[in-house]
Amino acid sequence: MKLLLFFGFVAVALAEVTRFEGDKVFRLKPTLDAHVTLIKHLAKSIELDFWRPDSDDLVTIDIDVDIHVPARYLDMVYITLEQGGVAYEILIDDFQSAVDGQADSGASPRAHSYTKYNTWSEIEAWTNTITSSNPSLVSKQIIGNTYEGRSMVLLKIGKSSASPKPAIFMDCGFHAREWISPAFCQWFVNEAVTTYGSDSAMTSLLNDMDVYVLPVFNVDGYVYSHTNDRMWRKTRSRNSGSSCVGTDPNRNFNAGWCTIGASSNPCSDTFCGSTPESEIESKNVANFIRNNKSTIKAYLTIHSYSQLLLFPYAYTFSLAADHSELLKVAEGASAALTSLYGTRYTSGPSAATIYPAAGGSDDWAYDLGVKYSYTFELRDTGYYGFLLPESQIKPTCEETMLAVKYIAAHVQKNL
Ligand code: ARG
Ligand code: ZN
Asked: Whose CA is nearest to atom 3 of ligand 1?
């Protein structure tokens, strides 16, 4: 037993962090069916990391396809693209430098900061301090544990009231590598507690409503993206009959589950899981929302990247019953966001705006009856992609606050 523990310890201590020396990110521009076929064929024969869309199954004609290519496949990718006549550009020429370059905020790497990418242990400790320093505004609950046994910490922000208040539910960190997302949830909580009482919109929002914030949904994946593989996306659950790990949590909800834009292959980055809510993280969140269905009026889920504000549906091209209102609010929110730094967003229903994909939490929440269901895809449009430098956390969060507050004000007005 002691020996096992010892070897276990050594294994953890020696766990290699993946390095990316010589890797590149390409943007491919398929304009013919033959190009699409070629890209899919390439994806089957070598290990490509799809950045956008999320996997090779989602590649279609006339969309930009951003792929991270490991150094050892570069020659083959160049030759294939040239021979197949696929237009491309290089988005990131030196991948490892981009990874190293993220930490450009000057914040201490050892303490929590709103302008750096905090580790899970920093975020978890922060949930305690932000709660205890703002007892009249913030409360904390654990909605369950992750696959690896970490706590899923949910913060409730709002002026306390005798009767239950209508609420907004917002989560961050579905996909592990989208680090700007948890940074936004932390920023939002801080803004809420520091501007309550001075900012009239925030004050009135938190007087009338509660905002539930889940700073990190996929905690295990987030940890793994810090300790082992910066490009990890999925959960960390084991799959029976496969050595590939993890499920895409945003393909794991019960909304047209695994019918389109999702994979039944456990090795895919868009694996839908063995059943809807097979992931304990999805189940915990779905249970919480189901149990509070009568109070939850809006569901916001924060991803990156692409600068999009999406709403149902993703599992079908049919328009949602509330399409025109959802679109109008999305356009207002995007305009508010753009007003600060000129960052341009596209709004629309997911299927037509990015691609059809079933099993998303946004569609699931909407079909449950949460009308204002939105997915944000934060900065950027692929220059840094998932490797957005820390120096962009502040402007990204500031502009996103305007969009979230715009949606919240609309929800509040329509209670
Ligand atoms: N990039 C996100 C994803 O594919 C977009 C989510 C949009 N909503 C959806 N239900 N697919 O997970
Ligand atoms: Zn995502």
From this structure: 250
Among 269, 303, 346, the mutation site with the greatest number of ligand 1 atoms within 8 A of its Cβ is 303
What whole-number distance in Å separates Cα of residue 109 and Cα of residue 112? 8
Do 182 and 330 fall into the same domain?
A: yes
Q: Higher confidence at residue 162 or residue 294? A: 294
**d(CA 383, ligand 1 centre) in Å:** 20
Inside any domain, residue 2 = no
Active-site residues: which are they?
377
Mark whether 84 and 122 lie in a shared domain: no
Measured at the alpha carbon of residue 152, what is the angle toward residues 150 and 153, in degrees to the nearest 5?
A: 120
Residue 27 in 3-state DSSP? strand
pLDDT digits (tens, 9 = 90+) for 270-289: 999 999 999 999 999 999 99
Pair (124, 208) in one structural domain: yes
How does residue 108 score in pLDDT terms, banded at 50, 70 and 90?
confident
Are the CB atoms for 170 and 404 separated by under 8 Å? yes
